[in-house]
Amino acid sequence: MTTKQAIQDIQKTFDINAIFAHKVFLLADKTNLLEDAARIIAEKPKPFVKWVGGKRQLLAQFRRLNLYPPEKFDIRIGRYFEPFVGGGAVFFDLLPEKGFLSDLNKELVTTYNVIRNDVEGLIASLKKHKIDKEYFLNIRAKDSKALNDLAVASRFIFLNRTCFNGLYRVNSKGGFNVPYGKYANPLICDESNLRKVSKSLQNIEVKHQDYKEVLKTAKKGDFVYFDPPYYPVSKTASFTSYTFA
């Protein structure tokens, strides 16, 4: 069996995309390929936050429609760009070796970078949070601009896990204003997944920047996934505010 055939076999057997299938092939024990591939795939990270407009439920359709990766994308040398990363469902499905993620939500970008650079510190901080409405309101009232990066990331994940529907919304002054979610037992600190996410981000650059910057950097042969906020159907029946502006 050739390398190409083996990768295609992994892709078909586990219903995964070509980029991740190639990565699995490189990591797997070739003497017991499919069994070891199953082990690697089971260790795959997933998005660490809920995010409005996330594409997690559409990934299987993307694969069936051959929407990614592009046919001419060279997995070995091509670079992946995602300028509206949000919860990162597509990134975590692809898990490219070379990636550039960005978003206009500064707290979100800070959280990605803290997970990459200090996941153990973040886990320790997340374990200190309480499931309590008054505590939630106190954390929500904190000014993120006055916090260090670790505290920003810890607050961001805590609020995302405990607020109503995992929404991110701010008022005219930039203050987070989503109400308490009243969940019975929300998982604030998913240690295992956070460590997997951290590992997947080690060779990934994450920046707080406008999507137009990607247009200045990406070149022929790169793969750019654009997923901008939705165009509102009316002035009232819409949600497009993922950042303070």
Overview of the molecule:
Among the domains are: 1-44; 119-187, Adenine-specific Methyltransferase, domain 2. Strands 3-2-1-4 form a four-stranded parallel sheet, covered by helices on one side. It starts with a helix and ends in a 21-residue tail after the last strand. With 245 residues, it is an alpha/beta fold. It is built from eleven helices and four strands, in the order H-H-H-H-E-H-E-H-H-H-H-H-E-H-E. The chain has helices at residues 3-14, 18-27, 33-42, 59-64, 89-94, 106-117, 119-126, 133-141, 149-162, 191-200, 212-217, and strands at 80-82, 99-103, 204-208, 223-224.
Draw up the topology in text.
Blueprint: H1 3-14, H2 18-27, H3 33-42, H4 59-64, E1 80-82, H5 89-94, E2 99-103, H6 106-117, H7 119-126, H8 133-141, H9 149-162, H10 191-200, E3 204-208, H11 212-217, E4 223-224
Parallel strand pairs: 1-2, 1-4, 2-3
Number-wise, the strands total 4
Overall pLDDT score = 89
User: Mind telling me the C-alpha Rg?
Assistant: 19 Å
Under the CATH scheme, the architecture of the domain at 119-187 is: Orthogonal Bundle
Short description:
By secondary structure, the protein is an alpha/beta fold. The protein contains 11 helices and 4 strands; from the N terminus they run ααααβαβαααααβαβ.
